[in-house]
Structures are given as C-alpha cells and as structure tokens.
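Researcher: Sequence recovery benchmark, item below. Answer with residues only.
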C-alpha cells in the first residue's frame, strides 16, 4: 500500500506530498474544508501544522486524509 512519506503546507490550503513510490505533487485541501469535520483548517496557523498520520496526513485535532483520497486528486508540481 502506498503511503505519504513527506508533507509540506503551501499557500491557498494546498499541501505538497511525496508518496513512498516516489510520486509527488500538490493536493488541494480547500474542497474538504467546507465540511464541519474539516472547518478548523480554515485557520492558517492550524492548517500549517499538517503532519504525517498513519499512511496519510493529519492535524492535531483529528482531521485526516488517507493516501487514496490524496492520490485521486494529486496535481503535478
């Protein structure tokens, strides 16, 4: 199973990710922020605290996105 091995916050609610197989790109988190579960990510300081979480990415208060979701909408750098 693929997993995210690197994540870095970018501007406009995007993150740069690198997968274990070498695939990399930019993932736009903005569409997810519309839901109640992810609304805390509207705060830029909090959003920038993104980190690796299991095979995907996550934040301190439990918001997370799995590698399949990220890969499905990954855009080339």
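Model:
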């Amino acid at each position: 199973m693929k997993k995210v091995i690197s994540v870095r916050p970018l501007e406009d609610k995007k993150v740069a990710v690198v997968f274990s197989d070498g695939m990399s790109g930019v993932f736009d988190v903005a569409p997810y922020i519309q839901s109640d579960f992810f609304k805390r990510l509207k705060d830029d300081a909090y959003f920038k605290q993104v980190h690796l979480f299991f095979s995907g990415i996550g934040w301190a208060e439990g918001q997370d996105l799995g590698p399949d979701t990220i890969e499905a909408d990954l855009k080339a750098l």
